[in-house]
């Protein structure tokens, strides 16, 4: 019987330990010694806190193919570093201008803007160094496929492109399709990459990869819709970051379009879609099933 | 007989065409369509202008192993994208606060700060997508080695780490060793990666790779020292960017330490070191020899 709380807590612990291990001056890739201030900022922006949902998705997808938690960790760390760098850059004054993240000062508040920009750049780069390392997977074909997948999920056609669309959307008027495209890129693309990378670690065949991609795309939509609902309903205290921001910024979400009740109904349907995409996998996909349900049920 | 001007001009043309080809919305990696504004900013920050010295080093190192110009191009584009992203981020108000680059408005001036941050992030990410693509090299072992090399050259232990040290140096007092370490990382690490990536494309054995690394490290020192000398001696008009900035910012360079005459003597010695590291390679290394000489002789 799959235990989501236990698996999730174990993932949080191993990601924390894994990031802490990589993010020391001596371990960071490059010919020279990383500046101490840079390493501190990278640690501030990635350690302590965070639900580590993307590494959890990597390990849960990998588990379908009997890949161990340990073997799925490096790829999970790479995805999490991308997530963390994106938060550091998103929090900058020129972007969302946030002072608080996970209940602590954001990197540019704890350090300064230049350091935050560089810490983000360094985390982004380190993510690819981790994937290229033989400890990530013994087969170079798999490692290079992971690099391609993470770049696709996080680049101009993925996360960063979605962030750009989000900023543009604050100025213009967005259709429901525009919002869906923006969210599929901004949040969905990295979730999609996490699931697919887990599948790749396990040597998934094209059919399994396609089913897991369908799962991931629905799970990503569920995650974002739940986030938009929480922005309206949750308190800042529970979230550890500012809430009510979307409405305050005049930002258009599916919740502002559909209303809260309709949005909640949609959320249930999307979670059902995600779970139905897993039907061929049996109990080894219980982890992914539980995470899709968690996305909809979470309170923060 | 090797013709530096012709090879360099050809490299500028093919890098320009190659970047323009990759940097269209349809070609950028990811599940969604890249936002037009993001693509425009990526193009503004990387097309038209730039001496393309790093792709030139990739092709020249690769030429030692009979790798064609065409086959060396994708790796060269990846290195150039890293260089261009670093300029976009360095120019930001929180960093060097430059309004002018290559005689044109910097990306945050032509667009805005948020767009410049994202365009830099997207170029960084796209560089790794290019290396992971089979068109870069047929052997996944080589592609994954290129990813590792570029990440090492550009991350916390390389270029970004050097940038952090440079910022710290504006506040404290730097020894000559501190300056050398900072410059070896900030400028040297990416030049080193470019040369080594060219060697890797050609399947260089460890001995050849080691000799080329020695060349690259000396060439990188020559490049930076020449840059510091130009900052003192050249006009803004010739450089297409602000000069005299180092002294204005109280920034410590080897020129401010050694004086101009001593710095010029050092430069000649370093170029001689670079060229002597190539002694086993014969005429196929004439490209790299010419570039080392060019680094010292360039007027902008």
Automatic annotation (TrEMBL), chains A, B:
Name this polypeptide is given: Polyprenyl synthetase family protein
Record keyword Transferase present: yes
Pfam family name, one: polyprenyl_synt
Obligatory cofactor(s): Mg(2+)
EC numbers for this chain: 2.5.1.-
Domain of life: Bacteria
The entry's keywords: Isoprene biosynthesis, Magnesium, Metal-binding, Transferase
First-tier enzyme category under EC: transferase
Record flagged with keyword Acetylation: no
InterPro entries reported in the protein's UniProt record: Isoprenoid_synthase_dom_sf, Polyprenyl_synt, Polyprenyl_synt_CS, Prenyl_diphosphate_synthase
GO molecular function, one term: transferase activity
Family: Belongs to the FPP/GGPP synthase family.
Organism name: Devosia honganensis
